[in-house]
Amino acid sequence: MAGSDEVSNKQVILKHYVTGFPKDSDMSVVTKTMKLKVPEGSKDTVLLKNLYLSCDPYMRGRMSKLDRPYFVTSFEPGSPLNGYGVAKVLDSTHPNYKKGDLAWGYTGWEEYSLIASPLLLIKIEHTDVPLSYYTGILGMPGITAYVGFHEVCSPKKGESVFVSAASGAVGQLVGQLAKLAGCYVVGSAGSKEKVDLLKKKFGFDEAFNYKEEPDLDAALKRYFPEGIDIYFENVGGKMLDAVLLNMKLRGRIAMCGMISQYNLEQPEGVHNLMQVVGKRIRMEGFIASDHYDLYPKLLELVLPAIKEGKIVYVEDIVEGLEKAPAALVGLFTGQNVGKQVVVVARE
User: Fold this and answer.
1) CA 251 to chain CA mean position, Å
2) Do residues 140 and 119 touch, judged by C-beta distance below 8 A?
């Protein structure tokens, strides 16, 4: 029972390290108690009320025991998961944050988080768009799309662009950025509903359901008879192999993620890498957190486009921390349509 100055704090805990496909039962929702005040003597600390949490594919790697250097660390079994979210500052001893501020960045998968020296917490200045957008188009996935497309691939008007996992948090924005840049854009997704979304809502020129294509090489030749200039890679495996056969001379590939590989104990090999040599293809990996200095450029481009209806964003929202484990696991079987968001509390 919480004391008079304490509140209950629901948390999503990782029970154990995961191999293969994650299950809801690899996590549990527990209730602890905490005081809604930064402890006396704590420097540079913020107390957050979490409003929205972001379910992101990279979190799958953190659910396993990572035995070699990786761009993120493993979650701690028995402790709450953490990741990107939107929160309200309830108390602060940090000079950059005050009570009432809204911010997005790293936080715990819990109702309230006490964070010392926040690693990433960006104040939200624009509240005339949905706050949940800061888990997606105006948050880490937005930076990912912007950097991967504009900085890594340097698009030119009239170029041909292919986006895999195109209806997800990042892919839907990449396709729209490509259309704004005057490119021809094709996306792949895993259901008829998602394919329709790509063409009718996001304005892709063409889209196909990869599950209905027995020969991915033939499918890509159908949509790109002259070849692909830019590939935004979210899938890996057989899709990457087929794309390599269809890239143009001096094509660019932004290596964003490989969701087809995250749950395999033995990753699939790539067989057509010699294409990179002969076609002088540039493949470049990148991580959003290296590029937060470009965040103002993302806002400058995307905020007006949202308000003018030139960019739309689709979210798949579940209500309540209890639903967070299933929402996260659902990413890996394509359950989500659009950016997967968990509502913890409305402001």
Assistant:
1) 24
2) no
Position 99 scores a pLDDT of 97
Q: How far is CA 287 from the centre of its chain?
A: 11
Place of tokens 């990279």: 58
What does pLDDT average to over the chain?
95
Provide the token pair at 141.
């996935």
Residues sharing a CB contact under 8 Å with residue 215, sequence separation 6 or more, in sequence order: none
How far does the chain reach from its first CA to its final CA, in angstroms? Answer: 25
| C-beta contacts of 190-193 below 8 A and 24+ residues apart | 190/334, 191/334, 193/337
- Dihedral sign, CA of 30, 36, 37, 38? positive
What is the residue whose two structure tokens read 């940090």? 94
Evaluate whether 90 touches 15 at the Cβ level (below 8 Å).
Answer: no
Q: Which of 10, 9, 13, 70 is nearest to 328 (CA)?
A: 13
Pick the closest to residue 110 from 163, 168, 56, 47 (CA basis): 47
Determine the pLDDT at residue 1: 44
Q: Would you tell me how many other CB atoms lie within 10 Å of the CB of residue 317?
A: 17
The model's pTM:
0.94
Q: Round to whole Å and give the CA distance between 229 and 257.
A: 19
CA distance 218 to 292: 39
Q: Which residues in the chain land under pLDDT 50?
A: 1
